[in-house]
Design a protein that fits this description.
- This protein has 390 residues and is an alpha/beta fold.
- The chain is 42% helix and 8% strand.
- The protein has a 10-stranded parallel sheet, with no helix packed on it.
- Helix 11 runs parallel beside helix 12.
- It is globular, with a radius of gyration of 27 Å.
Amino acid sequence: MDFEEGCPERRQKQAAARNERTERLGLSFEKLVVFGGVENMNRSGGGVDLGGGGPRISEWKDIPVELLLRILSLVDDQTVILASGVCHGWRDAISWGLTHLSLYWCKKNMNNLVVSLAPKFTKLQGLILRQDTPQLQDDAVERIAAHCHDLQELDLSKSFALTDRSLYALARGCPDLVKLNISGCSAFSDSALGYLTGFCRKLKHLNLCGCVKAATDRALMSIGYNCHQLQSLNLGWCDHVGDEGVKSLAYGCPDLRALDLCGCVLITDESVVALANNCLHLRSLGLYYCKNITDRAMYSLAHSRVKSKHEVWASRRYEEEGLMSLNISQCTALTPPAVQAVCDSFPALHTCPGRHSLIISGCLHLTSVHCACIAAHRPAAAAAIPHLAH
């Protein structure tokens, strides 16, 4: 490092210059708002002085890029797209500065809009293309993959018309994806999803809810093998998912924080035991309608708290660790002692009104299970937790 760059005085001067520039931009923006636009500014004396000997704004094309982007940050995405068509200067500035865009408001012709915008907005890092009615076709996603190589977050939920072509294109063109929502994209196959995870290994958040053909044990094995940074996964109503797939996730994704297995009717205690033993940072687990889950799974979760305590004690994060949400609705094989053991092990699980994070609806025989808030005045349970998970 150059000494002049590293010295405190130099850094302070640079910071002061940045602050001064930011203040000038803020003042310019305030003047634009007060005067009500360039036309009024010209009537009142001609232009806005940026201060510090900088240029005066006499026409819209004179607005500095930083100020233009600040203005556009205060309006909706539809207005930003319209602004990009004002002139080449504005289009280039927006193309350079726009990193996040949502087209959820577009109810018609979203596909054509994406095809036309993708080559212009090449710096996009986040793109929301969620739809109420399916509009997107593969050619739009292929266009995104061909031009938006910095993309990290992509929402394609409810894109029923998309096929495997889209996943293959994203795998080749957007390897930096961190967050991908393809919930409801029912045409995707497990082969295409496995191919995607082989390239997009930085994935941390993946929503596959309703992707029945894509979310299979084979695909989950690919995710566990490739995506070691995965933190949240939604597999809701993917009824082809079984124990082998979930165990692959547990072994390959130790940083998993949230997993929704609601409606995954094939899984058994083996899946929960693997998660409890390997995913010590798990905060949210959805097991709604997983009727093969028994007390063994609950006791394995309760005992994972003890293991987690030893792992995190040195970092003083013990109070922040552990389950904060558990949905076991319709898991009719569970008994009160096992569920109470889980509730006692994780203080963040609540059954009290307004704080329901232990969800047991549909399990009428579990009505005696209560969190610490309710159980504060009842005698402490003397029975030890049986070791059924080993």
